[in-house]
Amino acid sequence: MASLGATLLSGCGSQQLVTFGDMASGFNREVAFMSIFAIALSVIIFVAVSYALFFTVNKFREDKNTDAPAQFHGNNRLELILVVVPVVIVMFLAVLTVRSMAILNPVAEQTTKIDVLGRQFWWNFSYPETKADAGGDVTNGNEMVMPTKQPVALTITSGDVIHGFWAPNIGGQRAAMPGALKTWNVDTDRAAVYQGNCTQLCGGSHANMRYKVVALDQERYTTFLAAAKAYRAPEPAEGSAEARGYELFMKGNPATGALACAACHRVQGTTAAGAAGPDLSFFGTRRTLGAGMWEAMTPEHWEAPDAKAHLHAWIKHSPKVKPGSLMPTYDGSEYEVNGKLVKGGVLTDEQIDDVAAYLRTLKLPEEADYWNNTPVYGSSDAAENAPTPLAKTSSPTPGGKQ
């Protein structure tokens, strides 16, 4: 079963092994324990029924029985066995299921809490128990950082349609539903990077709605959380490309109709407090773009030429890169808003590069970089810590700043 799961799901990310057979998770271990009995009973039933079928067919073959078949109205003993045995099996499995639910479902008060918001087509992860010094909760877009060796309580909801949250290596899946809050536990004993995906068909870029789970040991997690709490976006040097990008990010370019990024995105420690798009506070630390469509895993990260090219194309015309993206265009082409086509504003290539330069400055301190020396689980590289080239992790389909 675990091997089948790995086979079916491993294509969801570059060099990732995605499997619900990962026994580093207590959730998965409990489900595997329950599954042993279910699979064993299934095998016994299959063998017994197959034996009864072939025995009956062979014994009562026409060439062995020329007499008319015996007539009877019923076999009470056989009927009783056929009713009682399935009822006993179902009751046994029900008891095992209730036992597992009693172990897995309760959420302890003293545990790490993370709020999950799913929207077309990206994810936001907030830490409600950690208030940023600059105001609001510590939040990260499309990359969930969690501690190891303890349960993590995820509370999930949706801002638009129904989405499905599932990172198989750390636990079970839940539906993200508008107006509803669902809380459940996930966990892992292994510090590593895991792949997560949306499992509910939610629109044109459902397959491109991904996220990363970065599990850290307690010391590194505490360091990350403390740095994220104290984080304030750096002030760019006057006259620099980053400073020009900051102005465009905050104000847009009204003369050409280019909208401000700050209207949709939040950057901790600035006046940018938009909620329509993912939080960009730590964009320079992140290694993914477009909710996991691309990964910048080279040592240069977003400074690498290929990564810069992807980021430039992303800002310039996101809906072209990611179908269904709701981000405005900045090349003057039309994009869809609430079912209607709207003409986008215009930024020159140089201005787009300035915005990208500003985004690359939004970094946590080096000691709080949760990607550093964190192995990608299931990497095909023998040395799991070795960086991999910038990878587009989805099929090459055309079509937000997610």
TrEMBL record:
Organism: Deinococcus radiopugnans ATCC 19172
Protein name: Cytochrome c oxidase subunit 2
Domain Cytochrome oxidase subunit II transmembrane region profile positions: 12-108
Keyword check for Membrane: yes
Catalytic reaction annotation: 4 Fe(II)-[cytochrome c] + O2 + 8 H(+)(in) = 4 Fe(III)-[cytochrome c] + 2 H2O + 4 H(+)(out)
Keyword presence, Cell division: no
Taxon lineage: Bacteria, Thermotogati, Deinococcota, Deinococci, Deinococcales
Protein family (similarity comment): Belongs to the cytochrome c oxidase subunit 2 family.
Entries under InterPro entries matching the protein: CcO_II, CcO_II-like_C, Copper_CuA, Cupredoxin, Cyt_c-like_dom, Cyt_c-like_dom_sf, Cyt_c_oxidase_su2, Cyt_c_oxidase_su2_TM_dom
EC top class named in words: translocase
Cofactor(s) named in the record: Cu cation
